[in-house]
Amino acid sequence: MQYQRIKSDLRGVAFTNPTPFDESGEEIRHDALASNVRHVVDAGGRVIIPCGNTGEYYSLTNEERVAVVETVAEAVGDEATIVGGVGGSTQTAIELASAYEDVGADAIMVMHPVHTYIHQVGLIDYYREIVESTDLGVVLYKRGPAVTRELLAEITGYENVVGVKYAVNDVKGFSEMVETIDADVVWSNGIAERFAPAFAVEGAEGFTTGIGNFVPEQVLALMDALEAEAWDRARELREQIRPFENLREEPGEENDLAAANNVPAVKHAMDLAGLHGGPVREPLVELSETDRRRAEEYYERIREATDEHATAR
């Protein structure tokens, strides 16, 4: 496997793409999915992550997950690296990795563990078995304390472990891990654009994005600014994006659980952009009318700022 090529692509923006459903929410629109990812790749995207949290991984069956990865792989061919999300039981993750390889994936991303009861030794065994079962590249996804520094230090030693998606708002912890874990992996900021400049300073070579599905050019421009260490331009782009990202972090109406707006906000903006967002599946719900109007306002601000910059050049 071409692990160095995968790492090279991960040193940039990784697009976590939504799964478009039909109006009933029961069927996946594979034609729309293919069109959506082509839009990203045609704009310059080089990493697509189907079946992540933005893709509503836990609302999909295994059959649907494999079909989604196959559609994405067929749509983009060799133009981008495909990193399919896997999770659940050890055997489920291993079987998905094998199926993804059969349909054209380049790598897997092991979703953050959601088991109610976890032992640190058992969790290391879980990751080790998955990594040792596949020749695909492996990205480790840290979204909370269960994925410890000790676990990452142990598992990143495998040749096929190519990256770490660090999705915790803790720059101090990230910096310490990058400096103290001796591993040939790509460290990626997994909490997107708002914190991309800070994480870049501390060693993040890439970041993941959800809003890049509908404004890929703007997100890729932010990555270009980070690579050039053009910090004023990076912060300018970040500020254009911040209101929409703040909206995604909110729980929505009649809800106390964090970030329920995340996926429906992206899907609504994709519809606004002439792409294919569509409805979400439970346990998510659609945006409230108030939040829909805010999403539309923030989307227009991003587009207007981009047009103004293009005119000024």
UniProtKB/TrEMBL annotation:
Top-tier EC class: lyase
Keyword terms, alphabetized: Lyase
GO molecular function: 2-dehydro-3-deoxy-phosphogluconate aldolase activity; 4-hydroxy-tetrahydrodipicolinate synthase activity; 5-dehydro-4-deoxyglucarate dehydratase activity; N-acetylneuraminate lyase activity
Gene3D superfamilies the UniProt entry points to: Aldolase class I
EC number: 4.1.3.3, 4.2.1.41, 4.3.3.7
Protein name: Dihydrodipicolinate synthase family protein
Residues at the active site: 141 (proton donor/acceptor), 165 (schiff-base intermediate with substrate)
Domain of life: Archaea
Residues that hold pyruvate according to the record: 54
SUPFAM superfamilies in UniProt: Aldolase
Residue spans crossing the bilayer: none
Signal peptide range in chain numbering: none
